[in-house]
Structures are given as structure tokens and as C-alpha cells.
Amino acid sequence: MNKYLRQLFTAVIVLFTILGLSSTMITAIRANKLNNDPRNQRGLYHEFNAPRGSILASDGTVMAKSDPVNDPFAYQRSYSNGPLYAPVTGYFSISQRADRGIEDSRNKLLTGESNQLFWQQFKSLFTGSANKGASIETSIDPKLQQVAFSQMAGKNGSVVALDPKTNRILAMVSTPSYDPNVLASHDTTKVNRDYQHLTSDESNPMLNRAISELYPPGSSFKTVVATAALESGKYQLDTRIPAGASYTLPNTNTKLTNTTSAANGGEDGKISFEDALAYSSNTAFAQLGGALGAQTIQDTAKKFGFGSSIQIDGSNSTGAPMQAIASKFPDNPSPDRLGLASIGQGDTQETPLQNAMIAAAIANGGTLMRPTLVDRVRSSDLSVISQTNPSVMSQPMSKDTASKLTEMMKAVITKENPNLAIPGVSVAAKTGTAQIGTNNQSIDAWIMGFAPADDPKIAVAVVVHNTDKAGSLAAGPIMRAMMKEALGK
Q1: Max CA distance (Å), the chain
Q2: Which of 136, 207, 212, 322 has its CA 20 to 30 A from that of 309?
Q3: Is 219 tagged catalytic?
Q4: Which of 114, 219, 281, 380 is catalytic?
């Protein structure tokens, strides 16, 4: 009898051991994988049965919130003026969960699952109340966002506005856009159908062009080359540099020309450095790029952020970090490719955010601040969990160089583009007209700049993709409208 009891006891112990190991595998080792499995409906109901935190503009305008509803999911995500703020908010969906924007970069805080909300979680555990998510207060100025969005109606491109002293993102618009509300529905069939429609749309409305698309910057890149030249100590505003009506790229038959005769320089074939930027002389800057050398320009571009992705918001502890893709200046280009790259064509590519950051660095006396999108995070009891403080990203130039560049960029308006002037305000800017498409039949139109030039409050970059107008005509009025709104003009 004792023999059978021992065998039974052993069997029970073995079974309990197997049960314990399997439970440990499920609840601990495989927990994250099972929670993230799209077939796990428990995780889905868990996320939707708690009030997700709101996403707010800088003035308290609600961009995204969760409303109680009478269905199995308990809460419905809604987006006020969805297409306007879509690049900022992203969306939260029963099929895709948190995707893009703040919804993704601050997902763990919005759901209330972040370790930063430990005491709130502890309180909810004992009171039985719902674990409410944190609210995210962004730096977005609703008025500037609306002006940019309205100005870009019917256009393909992006607008980015920064506070140059801090690089808080004041506006971030991408067009065409989409409505996150259609993806926030609780009708799975409809959500999947609408998602498929959006992702297959040739205009790619879900792409945040401000940080996730590269464009040839055209002559707006001349600000980077001008920075490299001034920092070398070999050039001043009145230094006369080679220009001419045309310039044949080295070892080719390709001739660069200028759009205005003023950009050609004098009878000696030279032009002052200031006028070369003011009149956007292609022949001058292609030759200047060759004289400086690719490494010098590339080193300067890297100080502005080229060659590396730029983190804008979030971290692995809060969600999926929001990052801008790396802007590009070519490595070891041939002499002819260097000439093209120096005027923002060929292999040079930028995001709109990067171009706004260049303008901001010049405006801020040569100091480039790290761009941010979130000002602070609050728990459901309104206490501040975290607050973003401005931080220096790099020092692309000296204060003296920034001052000289500012004078050169003011001349771009006063000498070549008086139509973009704002009465009573000194504006510094640089236009760009990049040829694109088959046989260069189309244009990416750019402008970047800041105002007031003597005490900058706003830095702006605008790109209008695939247009038939120059940067001063297609993008210039948009920048002007943004500046007027920011300065109350």
C-alpha cells in the first residue's frame, strides 16, 4: 500500500511541478508576447476599458480624448479636427492599437501602464477604480497649426514652425492628411477597410512629411554652405567670389545658370558673398562648394543634424520614440556631384524639420536646440509627472557667423523678394527651387526663415512638392502668413 501511495504522491508532485512551470511560462516569461498577440482579445478589452489620457495643444485645446460609450469597449477615442492634428496625434485603433504620433510615442503613459504612474496604479488597485491614463500637453499652437493647414490646402508638402530659442515645435503640418477618427471606430470591418484604403492611397496621406520624407532642398541649402564658408574665416559679406552667367560642372558638359542676371555678378565674373545668397547665385555656390571641399560642407551639415535620425519625442520607456529620418549630404562626391550638392540638388536631401532647425540655429545665435513636441505630462489628478526642459543639441556656428548669416538672409527679402516683407518686421529667409521629376519638369518649392530678425520669435520651413512655381511664389506666402500670425501682424 505504501508503495502505491508513494507513486501517487510522486505523480501529484510531478503534475504540480508541470502546472507551476506552465503557469510561470504563461504569466511571466511569455506574458509580453501573449499580451501583444493580435489574437488576444483580453488585452484589447483591457486597453479599451480604461479611460486613455488626452492629448492637448499648448493652450489646452483637446486634440484627442476618450469618451464613455455604451458598448463592450467602454471608451471611444475621438480626435477634434482630426486631419489638422493627425501628424501630431497619430491614432489609436482596435486593429492597429497605438500608431504614429503622440499616441505611439507616449502610449504607456496614455494607457496608465507606465512606471511613472506607479502611485496612481497602486491607488486604483485598492479602490477598484479605473486606472486612468496621463494627459500629454504638447507645444503645438492651434492658431499657427490652422494657418499652416489652411495655406497648404490642396497642396502636397509640409510646414514646420519652431520657437528658435527652445526648438519647441509650434506647428507641424503634413498634406494631404487623413482623419484619425475613421480608424478609431469600434467597427473592426470598417476600420480595416478604411485602413487599407488609406495605406493604398497614392498620395500617402498617413505619411508625416515633416519628419518622414526627404526632399532636395534646392537653394535653401546654401545657408549650410554659407555657414561653412563663414566659419572657415576666409569669407566676409563683401568678399567677392567667382560667379558668372554660367558654370560648367567639372568633367561634364552640364552648365549651371542663374534665374536672374543679378546673380551673375559683375563684368569681372565675381559677386559679393552677400549678394550671392541674396540673389541665389547657382554659379557662385557651385564653385564655392568646390573651393570649400565636400568634407568641410559635410562636417557643417552634421552639426546641424544631417546624417543622423533626430529624436523628437518619447523613449522606449514611454512608447515608440518619434524620430525624424536622417537628412543627407553625399559622402566623397565627385567634383560635379559636389557642385550640384552645394546648391541643394543632386544627392542632397532634407526633411522639412531639418530645414526649420537650420533657420532656428541661425536665429538663436548659432546654438541649435533639440526639437521637442511635448511640454509636460500630467496624471489624472493634474499633478505634473514630467516636464520638458530646453537642451542644446549642437553649436553649428559662432555667434558672429550667425549674425552675418542673418544679414545675408535679410538681404534675400530686401533685395530679391520684397513681396515677402512684413511691414514693421525685419524678416530673414532663404528660398529654394529644386528641380525634380523626368527632365526636371517639376519643382519642390522651399522657403526657410525667421522673424523678427533682431529678436526671433518663430522659425519656419515650408516645402510645396511637385509644383510649377518657384520657392518664393509657392512657399514664400505660406511662411509670411505663419510669421504674421505668430507676431500678431
Answers
A1: 117
A2: 136
A3: yes
A4: 219
CATH number of the CATH domain containing 281: 3.40.710.10
Give the residue numbers spanning the domain of 457: 214-377+388-487
Residues 370-379: tens digit of each pLDDT: 999 999 999 8
pTM equals: 0.88
118 to 53, 133, 222, 370, 488: CA distances (angstroms): 15, 12, 50, 29, 43
User: Is the link from the previous residue into 242 a cis peptide, with omega within 30 of 0?
Assistant: no
Number of domains within the chain: 1
Q: What is the DSSP letter of 410?
A: H
What's the pLDDT score for residue 98? 83
Closest CA to 460 of 440, 438, 484: 484
CB neighbours of 58 closer than 8 A, spacing ≥ 6?
137, 138, 139, 140, 141, 142, 170, 375
420 within domain boundaries: yes
Mean pLDDT computed over 245-262: 95
Render pLDDT for 424-465 as a digit per residue (tens, 0 to 9). Answer: 999 999 999 999 988 888 999 999 999 999 999 999 999 999
> For residue 162, which phi and psi values (nearest 5 degrees)?
-125, 155
